[in-house]
Amino acid sequence: MQICQDDLTGQKIIELLEEHLRNMHEITPPESIHALDLSRLRVPSISFWSIWDGDELLGCGALKELDTRSGEVKSMRTRTIHRGRGVASRMLEHIIGEAQKRSYTHLFLETGAFPEFEPARALYSKYGFEYQGPFGDYKDDPNSVFMAKKL
What we know:
By secondary structure, this protein is of the alpha+beta class. It has helices spanning 11-27, 38-41, 87-101, 118-126; strands at 2-5, 46-53, 56-67, 70-78, 106-112, 130-132, 144-150. It has a single domain (2-150), classed as Gcn5-related N-acetyltransferase (GNAT) (Aminopeptidase), CATH 3.40.630.30.
Protein backbone atom coordinates (compact mmCIF):
# COMPACT_ATOMS: atom_id res chain seq x y z
CA MET A 1 0.00 0.00 0.00
CA GLN A 2 1.31 3.39 -0.97
CA ILE A 3 -0.01 6.66 0.44
CA CYS A 4 0.22 9.76 -1.78
CA GLN A 5 -0.65 13.40 -1.26
CA ASP A 6 -3.66 13.86 -3.53
CA ASP A 7 -4.68 16.99 -5.45
CA LEU A 8 -8.31 15.80 -5.69
CA THR A 9 -8.42 15.98 -9.49
CA GLY A 10 -8.23 12.29 -10.45
CA GLN A 11 -11.42 10.58 -11.58
CA LYS A 12 -11.00 7.66 -9.16
CA ILE A 13 -10.74 9.88 -6.07
CA ILE A 14 -13.61 12.07 -7.26
CA GLU A 15 -15.81 8.98 -7.65
CA LEU A 16 -14.81 7.66 -4.21
CA LEU A 17 -15.67 10.95 -2.54
CA GLU A 18 -19.00 11.14 -4.39
CA GLU A 19 -19.76 7.58 -3.20
CA HIS A 20 -18.81 8.63 0.33
CA LEU A 21 -21.24 11.57 0.29
CA ARG A 22 -24.04 9.44 -1.20
CA ASN A 23 -23.51 6.83 1.52
CA MET A 24 -23.59 9.48 4.25
CA HIS A 25 -26.92 10.75 2.89
CA GLU A 26 -28.30 7.18 2.95
CA ILE A 27 -27.40 6.71 6.62
CA THR A 28 -27.43 10.12 8.29
CA PRO A 29 -30.02 12.92 8.48
CA PRO A 30 -28.87 15.90 6.34
CA GLU A 31 -28.37 18.22 9.32
CA SER A 32 -25.90 15.73 10.85
CA ILE A 33 -23.69 15.13 7.80
CA HIS A 34 -20.23 16.61 8.28
CA ALA A 35 -18.51 14.94 5.33
CA LEU A 36 -16.84 17.45 3.03
CA ASP A 37 -17.37 17.73 -0.72
CA LEU A 38 -14.50 18.39 -3.15
CA SER A 39 -14.68 22.17 -2.91
CA ARG A 40 -14.53 22.09 0.90
CA LEU A 41 -11.60 19.65 0.81
CA ARG A 42 -9.60 21.87 -1.57
CA VAL A 43 -8.60 24.44 1.03
CA PRO A 44 -5.14 25.24 2.43
CA SER A 45 -6.04 24.03 5.95
CA ILE A 46 -6.68 20.46 4.71
CA SER A 47 -4.07 17.92 3.67
CA PHE A 48 -5.56 15.05 1.69
CA TRP A 49 -4.08 11.64 0.92
CA SER A 50 -5.15 8.65 -1.12
CA ILE A 51 -3.92 5.11 -0.61
CA TRP A 52 -3.15 2.82 -3.54
CA ASP A 53 -2.16 -0.71 -4.45
CA GLY A 54 -0.54 -0.17 -7.84
CA ASP A 55 -3.13 1.72 -9.88
CA GLU A 56 -6.01 0.52 -7.67
CA LEU A 57 -7.44 3.18 -5.33
CA LEU A 58 -8.04 1.65 -1.89
CA GLY A 59 -9.17 4.63 0.17
CA CYS A 60 -8.47 8.12 1.43
CA GLY A 61 -8.11 10.33 4.46
CA ALA A 62 -7.45 13.93 5.38
CA LEU A 63 -6.08 16.09 8.18
CA LYS A 64 -7.58 19.51 8.83
CA GLU A 65 -5.54 22.00 10.82
CA LEU A 66 -7.74 23.45 13.55
CA ASP A 67 -4.97 25.63 15.00
CA THR A 68 -1.20 25.40 15.37
CA ARG A 69 -1.51 22.70 18.04
CA SER A 70 -4.42 20.53 16.92
CA GLY A 71 -5.99 18.85 13.92
CA GLU A 72 -9.08 16.96 12.87
CA VAL A 73 -9.25 13.63 11.05
CA LYS A 74 -11.54 14.04 8.02
CA SER A 75 -12.74 12.06 5.01
CA MET A 76 -11.60 8.61 6.13
CA ARG A 77 -13.01 6.20 3.56
CA THR A 78 -12.08 2.72 2.34
CA ARG A 79 -13.58 1.44 -0.89
CA THR A 80 -16.10 -1.26 -0.01
CA ILE A 81 -14.29 -3.97 -1.98
CA HIS A 82 -11.08 -3.31 0.01
CA ARG A 83 -12.51 -3.31 3.54
CA GLY A 84 -10.86 -5.72 5.94
CA ARG A 85 -7.40 -5.30 4.39
CA GLY A 86 -6.06 -2.76 6.90
CA VAL A 87 -6.49 0.23 4.60
CA ALA A 88 -8.11 2.44 7.25
CA SER A 89 -5.52 1.47 9.86
CA ARG A 90 -2.69 2.34 7.50
CA MET A 91 -4.26 5.70 6.62
CA LEU A 92 -4.99 6.56 10.25
CA GLU A 93 -1.40 5.73 11.20
CA HIS A 94 -0.24 8.08 8.43
CA ILE A 95 -2.50 10.89 9.66
CA ILE A 96 -1.38 10.43 13.27
CA GLY A 97 2.25 10.47 12.12
CA GLU A 98 1.70 13.67 10.14
CA ALA A 99 0.03 15.30 13.16
CA GLN A 100 3.03 14.36 15.29
CA LYS A 101 5.43 15.84 12.67
CA ARG A 102 3.44 19.07 12.92
CA SER A 103 3.85 18.98 16.73
CA TYR A 104 0.12 18.85 17.30
CA THR A 105 -0.85 18.03 20.86
CA HIS A 106 -4.35 16.76 20.02
CA LEU A 107 -6.25 15.09 17.19
CA PHE A 108 -10.04 15.28 17.07
CA LEU A 109 -12.71 13.66 14.94
CA GLU A 110 -16.44 13.42 14.40
CA THR A 111 -18.09 10.24 13.20
CA GLY A 112 -21.60 8.84 13.12
CA ALA A 113 -23.52 7.39 16.05
CA PHE A 114 -25.43 4.86 13.93
CA PRO A 115 -24.56 1.13 13.91
CA GLU A 116 -23.02 1.48 10.43
CA PHE A 117 -20.26 3.57 12.02
CA GLU A 118 -19.34 1.01 14.71
CA PRO A 119 -16.30 -0.29 12.74
CA ALA A 120 -14.99 3.28 12.48
CA ARG A 121 -15.52 3.95 16.18
CA ALA A 122 -13.76 0.66 17.05
CA LEU A 123 -10.81 1.60 14.82
CA TYR A 124 -10.45 5.02 16.42
CA SER A 125 -10.68 3.53 19.92
CA LYS A 126 -7.99 0.99 19.01
CA TYR A 127 -5.68 3.89 18.15
CA GLY A 128 -6.27 5.68 21.45
CA PHE A 129 -9.09 8.07 20.58
CA GLU A 130 -11.47 8.62 23.48
CA TYR A 131 -15.07 9.77 23.50
CA GLN A 132 -15.69 13.40 24.38
CA GLY A 133 -18.13 16.22 23.71
CA PRO A 134 -18.26 18.44 20.62
CA PHE A 135 -15.19 20.45 19.66
CA GLY A 136 -14.57 23.42 17.37
CA ASP A 137 -17.73 24.55 15.61
CA TYR A 138 -19.60 21.28 16.18
CA LYS A 139 -22.79 21.28 18.22
CA ASP A 140 -24.06 18.47 20.42
CA ASP A 141 -25.88 16.07 18.09
CA PRO A 142 -27.35 12.65 18.95
CA ASN A 143 -26.32 11.44 15.47
CA SER A 144 -22.65 12.34 15.98
CA VAL A 145 -19.87 10.89 18.11
CA PHE A 146 -16.88 13.06 18.99
CA MET A 147 -13.49 11.63 19.86
CA ALA A 148 -10.02 12.97 20.68
CA LYS A 149 -6.50 11.66 21.06
CA LYS A 150 -3.73 13.32 23.01
CA LEU A 151 -0.45 13.08 21.11
